[in-house]
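Q: For a teaching session next week I want to show students how multiple molecules come together into a single three-dimensional assembly. I've collected the sequence lines for a complex. Could you give me the predicted structure tokens for the whole thing so I can convert them for display?
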Amino acid sequence: MNTMNYLFAAYMAIWILLALYLFSIHSREKKLRDEVERLKGILDKVE
Amino acid sequence: MKVLLQHRVDILLFILLFAGMSFALYMALIGAPTEKTMGDIQRIFYFHVPAAITGLTAFALNFVASLMYVFRKNRWWDSLALSSAEIGILFFCMLLITGPIWAKPVWFVWWTWSPRLTSSLVLCLLYAVYLLIRKSFEDPDRKAMVAAVFGIVAFADAPLVWFSIRWWRDIHPSPMLETGNLDPSMRPAFYTCMAAFLVLFLFLVRRRFYLEQMRNRIEWIYRRTETNRMKGILQ
Amino acid sequence: MLFFGIVVLVIFNFSLGSLHDTIRPAVPGILWVAFAFSGTLGLNRLFAAEKENGCLQGLLMIPADRGAIYLGKMLASFFFMLIAEAVIFIIGLVLFNLTVWAEIPYLVLVFVIGTLGFTAVGTLLSAISVNTKLREVLLPLILFPVILPILINAVEATDIILNASDYGATNLPGTSSLPEGLKLPLTIMSSFTVIFGTISYLLFERVLEE
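A: Of course. Below is the structure for the complete assembly, covering every listed component.
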């Protein structure tokens, strides 16, 4: 049935959008954590 | 996965989210009755409308947070404003994509410039511009204040989105939630999906807010080390 | 500012040239696009002088109510834009062969309310954009989404007035009551103008302070 294709497309769209956003948050968070680690390392060296 | 879940609340929310979304999916695709005229395509409704309501809630949260920032100047509110704006845009993207997908087989067009569709698009654009304005300022306090002002102005369009189907004749279906016109057999599915989306909203806002707090703290560190004594240490 | 508006009119005439006589329904839209673009130009220069000479701080040090600065700037841009609109409109009358004697009062009403709303929020946004790296490029970006509700309703109202015969309205010329179709656009325009004006008046100083 053609309408089922559209239904599938709609639900896929929602999931994909969600997945992209969660991935974006995750990668941003990883970058920040790496930054924190780097800063910690420098401070340890200074002390 | 340790990165994702920090506090007990988040873990609880995630479990609730997973369960809620699964149940919502079941209700929307299987538990709900098939609609008479449109057939199965109508099931998009169970995710389309909650996305709209959640999006508007997100923008309302942004409005409140912006207002609070203007009065209190506490950056906590600014982080909340940014988080809710981003998430509002996310839900509105869901809305503006599922809408045309639903419209194509039913109205035979992808898009029409009816009041509700136009004002929804404008609202989404407005908050995209909100994010753009934030990028144009360097100083965090300036950025927060200007963004807060713009957030307050931008919310003026939101009532227009909500009431547009009441004030104009529109190809978009007329209001049924407030007037109680929603068919009783569809209500369980709808309420389930609405609840699931709200849990999703809470989960996402918390995550984004936490990210923003972390970013602010690191930026604070950098600013602290900009004094002459500390310069060069972080290079 | 004026010149730019006229240029916009001419450009539209060329881009829609194939329509010729049937261009009449598009005229309200064309007019308001011309108004909006020239208005934006005017708003761009609103704070440029202060910014260039570093006088923005000076403005804040005036021992007067900060809101007065906003009102001053807004009224200035309002009057300039209104004058530009009048001239652009008259030239538009000539270029598009319109006759609009009886409808002038309604048109004035629509133009005034629309311009008021435009400059009310435009002044605030101009103050925002003048302080950024992007300067003038930012203003159209942030202004147009905000102004769209007012713009859309202004075009609708102007359309109803100019093309009244298409709407079957026979009571337009010379009657004291507004035609039915005008009430909604005008209400929305006015409410937005009031809301924008109030918000801008109250929040203006926050935008300028460092």
